[in-house]
Design brief:
Elements: E1 10-21, H1 24-30, H2 32-53, E2 56-62, E3 65-70, H3 73-89, E4 101-112, E5 118-119, H4 121-132, E6 138-141, H5 142-148, E7 157-162, E8 171-176, H6 183-192, E9 200-203, E10 207-208, H7 216-231, E11 237-238, H8 241-244, H9 254-261, E12 265-274, E13 277-286, E14 292-301, H10 305-320, H11 326-331, H12 340-355, H13 358-374, H14 379-394, H15 401-418, H16 423-435, H17 439-452, H18 457-469, H19 473-486, H20 493-506, H21 510-523, H22 531-540, H23 544-557, H24 563-569, H25 574-586
Parallel strand pairs: 4-6, 9-11, 9-12, 10-12
Antiparallel strand pairs: 1-3, 1-4, 2-3, 4-5, 6-8, 7-8, 12-13, 13-14
Helix pairs in contact: 1-2, 2-3, 6-19, 7-10, 12-13, 12-14, 13-14, 14-15, 14-16, 15-16, 16-17, 16-18, 17-18, 18-19, 18-20, 19-20, 20-21, 21-22, 22-23, 22-25
């Protein structure tokens, strides 16, 4: 996009609305003349009247899309909602797919040319948000949300921060009016935000008040273990660690956190470590009322850290549900490492394990290898090392596929032998068995993991992928949705979006397959492996240009990759793999 020249341009703050028609290329390929007539009628009868009634200015139309400028963010959002409602209510032909829009809205500085065209990051962010929206949905930036909240009676869903391509800073994204094709699933997600049956709790990141900022990982590790212990109580609903950590470093009212995560209780605290001495302070808060139910501090030495965690867990459980017996708390304990330095290394490795990126995977493996040199019998370290090796297989990073498959399964089984009732470790074994395509055993492991810890977002995620590999896309989508409910702000949520996208591909809903994978790519733009399944989704949805561009991005991340390499790494059924192969072939990837 060329920049306007200085002598003809002016700057101003504006709310920018970008919208496009879903599946435009597919609609045109089926009925070019009919589609053009429908778009002309849509613009004349729906779009232009509503722009005028909400004091907007139609800047331009671009094929299947259009760009609108508003002076007021409130007007922009009202106009977007009315547009979506009007489009959804329009009668359609029995033999034609209904028209749907995706809308993005941003508030930012724009540059206005003499002819009225607009440019700048204010426009670019709106365009990125539009691509992220589901069919029939609206995504808006945090700046727009800040201006409209409390002024409009709509239900917004916080989707966390996203890093968009060619945009310097992360953008906080809010969505409303989930799309028509996903209304049932999104309705389930929204209703689930009300308090579940039984006690529900979120454990926030504990504040590190040690003088050494390097102790941050130690405070995070304590929270990790408390969440794991609480998750084992089947009567509890516990938000996953990766979502509660979205609040790290932010000052947010407990009542707001309760509403956003859909929980009744919040546990918060701090950690001070000085040499061998450690003090953990914790307080349990009723998120409905903001009332503190109890507050306590726990003093000891570093070697006592696991006992201190157990005391905090017992206090939480005793305050919320006193009928839970001490014996059940005992069963919630993991097998502890013999060497605390190994524990430190595992805590440092965790963010790299979940990044699902090549360089991060190598760093995680390095830290875990060091941990296992110090404590060869540490089940969590063994399981995480197995999963890192499994990632190499799944994401086409392996230099020796057969050896990595054997070693992944060996390490996962070794960890499970040491900790046969640890749900995380059973989930790793289930994932390893999925990689080696032993689906019956994988199902058994994942079912056992979920019976032990129904709050494991990752176990629900792996179960979703297992159902995908077994050609059961509708159940897969339910399990990915469950994972997202347990961890709505999880940095790994994009992996669930990928899973939902692949489920739609299996069901031959290629437009939706591409849209969900686009959402995942928005969250993780540097993750080249996404293009292995996004490119064929574009191809079979009739988006040939996007498919070729997607393959281009894939080859940048994987020079020399071929269709055969991708098929060897993935575990879908032969019929689904043949469709992936055909889509990649159409997009120009060599055999």
């Amino acid at each position: 996009m060329s920049s306007p020249s200085d002598h003809t341009a002016q700057r101003r703050l504006a709310a920018v609305l970008a919208a496009d028609v879903v599946g435009y290329s597919d609609l045109m390929s089926r009925d070019e003349e009919g589609t053009l007539n429908r778009l002309r009628d849509l613009r004349r009868q729906v779009i232009e009247p509503r722009i005028q009634s909400h004091h907007g200015r139609l800047v331009k139309t671009i094929g299947d899309g259009f760009l609108i400028e508003f002076a007021s963010p409130v007007d922009a959002v009202r106009c977007a909602v009315e547009l979506q409602e009007a489009v959804a209510a329009r009668p359609g032909k029995a033999d034609a797919k209904p028209l749907q829009l995706r809308v993005g809205i941003n508030l930012g500085d724009i540059v206005v040319e003499e002819d009225g065209d607009i440019f700048g990051d204010g426009v670019n962010v709106a365009s990125r948000l539009q691509k992220m929206a589901l069919p029939g949905g609206i995504c808006l930036s945090g700046k727009v949300y800040d201006e409209v909240r409390g002024k409009l009676a709509y239900e917004f869903e916080d989707r966390g921060e996203h890093q968009f391509k060619n945009i310097g800073q992360a953008i906080r994204v809010f969505c409303l009016l989930e799309g028509m094709d996903t209304r049932q699933a999104s309705g389930e997600r929204r209703s689930a935000r009300s308090h579940p049956e039984g006690p529900s709790i979120a454990v926030l990141p504990f504040v590190n008040i040690s003088k050494d900022p390097e102790q941050e990982y130690f405070a995070d590790g304590i929270v990790e273990d408390i969440i794991a212990a609480l998750s084992r109580f089947r009567s509890f609903f516990v938000i996953a660690r990766n979502s509660t950590f979205a609040y790290k470093g932010r000052t947010v009212a407990v009542q707001q956190i309760g509403r956003e995560l859909g929980v009744r209780y919040v546990l918060e605290g701090s950690v001070r470590r000085s040499g061998p001495r450690i003090r953990i302070t914790a307080q349990l808060v009723d998120a409905n009322t903001g009332i503190h139910l109890w507050a306590e501090h726990y003093d000891g030495v570093v070697e006592d850290v696991f006992d201190l965690q157990d005391r905090i867990t017992a206090s939480v459980v005793g305050s919320i549900q006193p009928s839970i017996r001490t014996a059940e708390i005992e069963r919630a304990r993991r097998k502890r490492p013999e060497n605390l330095d190994a524990y430190d290394l595992v805590m440092r490795a965790l963010p790299y394990v979940w990044a699902l990126e090549y360089e991060a995977n190598k760093e995680a493996a390095r830290l875990l290898d060091k941990a296992l040199l110090l404590d060869p019998g540490y089940p969590l370290a063994i399981a995480l090392a197995a999963w890192c090796r499994g990632q190499r297989i799944v994401y086409n990073w392996s230099k020796n596929l057969q050896e990595d498959k054997r070693e992944t399964l060996r390490q996962a089984q070794a960890a499970a032998a040491l900790a046969h009732d640890d749900p995380f470790i059973l989930t790793v074994l289930g994932a390893a068995l999925t990689i080696t395509r032993e689906y019956q055993r994988a199902t058994s492991m994942l079912e056992r993991a979920l019976s032990l810890d129904p709050n494991s977002a990752w176990a629900w995620n792996r179960s979703g992928w297992l159902h995908n590999y077994q050609d059961d896309p509708e159940i897969a989508i339910q399990h990915f949705e469950r994972s997202l409910r347990l961890s709505p702000f999880d940095p790994m949520a994009f992996n669930c979006e990928m899973g939902i996208g692949c489920a739609h591909f299996i069901a031959k809903r290629y437009d939706l397959a591409a849209q969900w994978q686009e959402k995942a790519l928005m969250s993780k733009p540097r993750t080249a492996w996404i293009h292995r399944t996004l490119a064929p989704a574009y191809s079979l949805a009739g988006e040939a240009d996007k498919a070729r561009e997607s393959v281009g991005e894939l080859v940048k991340g994987y020079p020399g990759i071929r269709i055969a390499d991708i098929l060897q790494a993935m575990a879908f059924s032969k019929e689904v793999m043949s469709r992936f192969a055909e889509g990649l072939r159409q997009a120009g990837l060599p055999e």
